[in-house]
Write a structure and sequence with these properties.
The protein has about 210 residues and is mainly α. It is about 40% helix and about 10% strand. It has a single domain, classed as Rossmann fold. It is globular.
Length: about 210
């Protein structure tokens, strides 16, 4: 849902949008199908790139580790090592090919699960890296990493999505959704999503198994 609202915001700001998904070996492919639907809604080109993070494991999303029903304390086992770094690096490469100078990502540092790669410090550091490590950056055409939701609560994200016409029924947030995209209703991602709709006073369109 965060990526869908981010795409809608980018479109509202007048950007010609190219949507990137990464099939990294996550537990289910239904979120990738959902990304295709969201991109279609907003008229964005959609590309899906495969990177096998299951080969290194280390997460409940990429290894045979049970998905917890509550986040607990500290960085949860659903954290995927270096996932956002890898996905932003792929987006950076595609941006160079497209001649784009702006990369949007849907990370959030308020109602999130404690992931270190969702913090403002990470986004700022990656933007510095992007301008050091690329031909376009070295030639003086600055690249910007936009994280428009980073300081919003889930309820605020829901309200922004409603304002922008996002069809949240097209989105999948659950860590262990089934092949049809139906959510478990128990994992941390489901809990945060449901609470966001409740706090925003918006009917939750999530389909549950």
């Amino acid at each position: 849902m965060d990526s869908a609202v981010t795409l809608a915001l980018a479109r509202e700001q007048g950007f010609a949008c190219h949507a990137l998904s990464v099939a990294y070996g996550q537990r289910h492919a239904s979120e990738l199908a959902a990304a295709e639907r969201v991109a279609e809604q907003f008229g964005a080109e959609h590309k899906c790139v495969e990177v096998d993070l299951r080969s290194i494991g280390g997460s409940a999303l990429t290894a045979d580790i049970a998905v917890p029903e509550s986040a607990g304390s500290g960085i949860p086992v659903t954290y995927v090592p270096a996932r956002n770094t890898i996905m932003l690096a792929i987006a950076l490469g595609w941006a160079e090919v497209l001649g784009a100078h702006d990369i949007f990502c849907g990370v959030n540092a308020v109602d999130y699960s404690g992931y270190p790669d969702c913090r403002p410090e990470f986004i700022a550091a990656f933007e510095r890296l992007a301008n050091l490590a690329t031909k376009v950056g070295v030639e003086g055409n600055a690249l910007r990493i936009h994280a428009p939701l980073i300081r919003l609560s889930k309820a605020q994200i829901v309200r922004e999505g409603v304002r922008l016409g996002v069809d949240f029924a097209r989105t999948v947030s659950c860590y262990q959704a089934d092949d049809d995209g139906r959510a478990c209703g128990r994992c941390d991602a489901c809990r945060l999503r449901a609470q966001g709709f409740a706090d925003a006073g918006v009917a939750d369109p999530t389909r549950y198994a």
